[in-house]
């Protein structure tokens, strides 16, 4: 691999990406042609969640897992949590500095925190691991098992926390983009003024004006105390408001030493729905959230991982499914295979359909999204560009730095090339296709215009970024 030209590595990396986009195009085409309606897509999603993905996890993990790679699951879980935290921080920063559509005010956090960790990743891994310098079938099984850890965390969180955030976007009456965009521009201008004044105060302290700085800090504390009764009154007035249309409330705060705080609060728009009573039945109750979380714990994907762990740890049980298990003496079936080898064959047969079906579902979801033709200028270009750059350019760089740092301190095994490749690769994934499906389900009109605008640039960037990142990672691991 050290003598392999980088152009060859690019072709090896581009091949699975091309296959991926061909599958997505097939799903897009049959949906546009009317052969794959929405009800069929929902059925295909259930097939993936309850049949093909659990079968894939069982067939791969049961044979690949052993005591030697147990230590890999700790780093996998930590990496998954770190990537989600970085995504949430990215979304929060974007929402503070760029305007986000009202029907995407919570969806931006889902777009940043979750990514396509299953269908896209498994499709690429099964192709990359099948060729040199990896070890063919064994590394394929190991890579899919490692990706399964990300899948379990993904499905446990997206169908509880993620779904709740998406549902909140569609609670209450809609607020026009102008009603949100206008006050947001004022908010950004006020924030810049606040930051500018803060910078001036810092420079003055550097010049030696320590006394004035301490006096200003004391005045800010007194100001915050004076503001609390007014803010409490404001919250009370919002709770009892029942105006016929959405209203933007601005706060009148007396001038004084609190000018900077007043500027920030004036810039924050408070959009009051016309009626909060109508939206309350749509809000999920806490008991339902707990039930959804418990239901996700009994999902077939998680159960298949648990069963795979049990089978892989008990040699006598593993020998019933897999041949040539050391330390066992299980009589074979008449065909010379283990007695339950047909179960493993069936699971592998069903699991092979997981990646194609998942990518076809993604293409179908893209076909149902309304592309904002001719009105890109009315979209949140700043937020769209920032999220695309963050997930497709900044995240891969951070992923390389984090994974290499963990490798140097020994948290990630330097000899486990498959683990290092998986941990770096999942840092360049776009918005999850599951978010598209959940958004279409939560919206009464299946309106996903804003989500389409956020997703399409990421898919375009992904085709190049994923290829370069894969080639770079191969050179990093084997160069």
From TrEMBL:
It comes from the Eukaryota. The keyword Membrane applies. Pfam families: Mem_trans. The chain crosses the membrane at residues 6-28, 73-94, 106-130, 142-161, 290-311, 347-367, 379-402, 418-439, 451-478. Keywords: Membrane, Transmembrane, Transmembrane helix. One of its GO terms (cellular component) is membrane. The keyword Transmembrane applies. This is Auxin efflux carrier. The lineage of its organism: Eukaryota, Fungi, Dikarya, Basidiomycota, Agaricomycotina.
């Amino acid at each position: 691999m050290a003598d392999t030209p980088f152009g060859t590595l690019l072709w090896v990396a581009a091949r699975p990406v091309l296959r991926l986009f061909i599958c997505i195009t097939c799903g897009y085409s049959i949906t546009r042609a009317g052969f794959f309606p929405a009800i069929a897509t929902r059925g295909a999603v259930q097939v993936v969640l309850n049949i093909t993905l659990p079968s894939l996890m069982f067939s791969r993990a049961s044979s690949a897992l052993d005591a030697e790679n147990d230590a890999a699951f700790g780093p996998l879980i930590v990496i998954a949590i770190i990537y989600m935290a970085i995504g949430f921080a990215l979304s929060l920063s974007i929402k503070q500095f760029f305007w986000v559509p009202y029907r995407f005010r919570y969806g931006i956090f889902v777009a940043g925190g979750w990514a396509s960790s299953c269908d896209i990743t498994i499709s690429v891994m099964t192709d990359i691991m099948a060729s040199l310098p990896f070890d063919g079938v064994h590394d394929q099984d190991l890579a899919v098992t490692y990706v399964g850890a990300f899948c379990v965390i993904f499905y446990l969180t997206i169908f509880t926390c993620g779904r709740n955030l998406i549902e909140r976007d569609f609670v209450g009456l809609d607020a026009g983009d102008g009603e949100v965009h206008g006050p947001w521009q004022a908010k950004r201008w006020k924030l810049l003024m606040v930051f500018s004044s803060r910078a001036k105060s810092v420079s003055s302290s550097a010049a030696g004006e320590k006394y004035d700085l301490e006096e200003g800090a004391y005045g800010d504390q007194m100001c915050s105390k004076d503001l609390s009764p007014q803010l409490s009154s404001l919250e009370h007035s919002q709770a009892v408001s029942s105006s016929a249309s959405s209203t933007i409330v601005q706060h009148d705060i007396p001038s004084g030493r609190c000018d900077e705080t007043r500027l920030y609060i004036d810039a924050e728009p408070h959009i009051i729905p016309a009626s909060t009573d109508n939206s309350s039945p749509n809000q999920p109750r806490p008991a339902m959230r707990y039930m959804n979380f418990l239901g996700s714990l009994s999902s077939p994907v998680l159960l298949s991982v648990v069963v795979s762990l049990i089978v892989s740890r008990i040699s006598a049980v593993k020998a019933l499914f897999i041949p040539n298990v050391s330390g066992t003496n299980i009589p074979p079936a008449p065909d010379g295979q283990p007695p339950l080898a047909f179960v493993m064959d069936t699971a592998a047969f069903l699991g092979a359909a997981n990646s194609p079906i998942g990518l076809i579902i993604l293409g179908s979801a893209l076909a149902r999204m309304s592309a904002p033709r001719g009105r890109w200028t009315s979209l949140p270009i700043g937020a769209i560009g920032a999220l695309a750059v963050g997930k497709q350019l900044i995240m891969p760089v951070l992923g390389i730095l984090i994974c290499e740092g963990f490798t140097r301190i020994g948290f990630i095994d330097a000899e486990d090339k498959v683990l290092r490749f998986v941990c770096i690769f999942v840092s360049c994934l776009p918005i999850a296709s599951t978010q598209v499906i959940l958004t279409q389900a939560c919206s009464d009109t299946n309106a996903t215009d804003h989500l389409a605008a956020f997703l399409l640039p990421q898919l375009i960037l992904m085709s190049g970024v994923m290829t370069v990142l894969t080639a770079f990672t191969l050179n990093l691991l084997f160069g």
